[in-house]
Give the backbone structure.
Amino acid sequence: MLTLSDEKHFFTFSKANKPVLRIKSGDHVKIKTMDCFSNQIRKEEDQLEAINWELVNPATGPIYIDEAKPGDVLKVTVERIDVGSLGVMATGKDLGVFGSYFQGMCKKLIPIEGSVAHFNEQIKIPLNKMIGVIGVAPEGEGVNCGTPGSHGGNMDTKLITEGTSVLLPVFADGALFGTGDVHAAMGDGEVGVTGIEIDADLTLHFEVLKGLTLNNPMIETDEIISCIASGENLEEAGLQATRDMYDYLNEQSVLKGEELAMLLSAVGDLQVSQVVDPLKTARFTIPKKYLKAIRH
């Protein structure tokens, strides 16, 4: 299996980035990632005020996939997420939904043992390991790794976990894929501005899909498909994700457009991914069990 160290990383998704690994469609790669603080907080003495904030949200990569061309779709299946032994959370003034409540900065180190995060002596949180940053070079100017968009990026979508396939529109030759910002646990919204941030080893499978066009990322599991979109606010993001699902299904549907809209209203779920990044992210999800009856 191919491997990639977290020493090879970047802070902006861009067509100008030089690839650090070249692979083929069908390859499996084990990728090491740093936490969102570039592993700068490892002990109680480490203070948020003292870290280099220019080193936030590193993505390991970029990886060049030989067959990937603009207009294709890169399918990345998350086969395994192995997290480290120490997570960190942070919040404070002007951060997240509660930023106006606080005057300073606050961090919390959270040990990981087995399948549990030890928040404190009384509270033990079951792990729901997920990838926050996953994407490709965008179509136009570079986008910092803290911002989501049509290229993926910092979507902070907790459904991106083991067994999930992420489908990303390709805008540049080779796609120039990168990933990072893994969480040991995170709730929808990431309202405090972090999940349990942690370093990790990811095992990913890459496949280039020809003849499929996407405007924004999609994800697929054994149970659901979900369209992901980001916008200036949640309303904009939610409308785009919902319309992306309608457009995707309508191209292959035996239902009239009005019937498809009714079905999505009856069985689809509009969900929040995150509300704390420069752009907000929402997703529209439908159970896969309905797809066979929808499609030609």
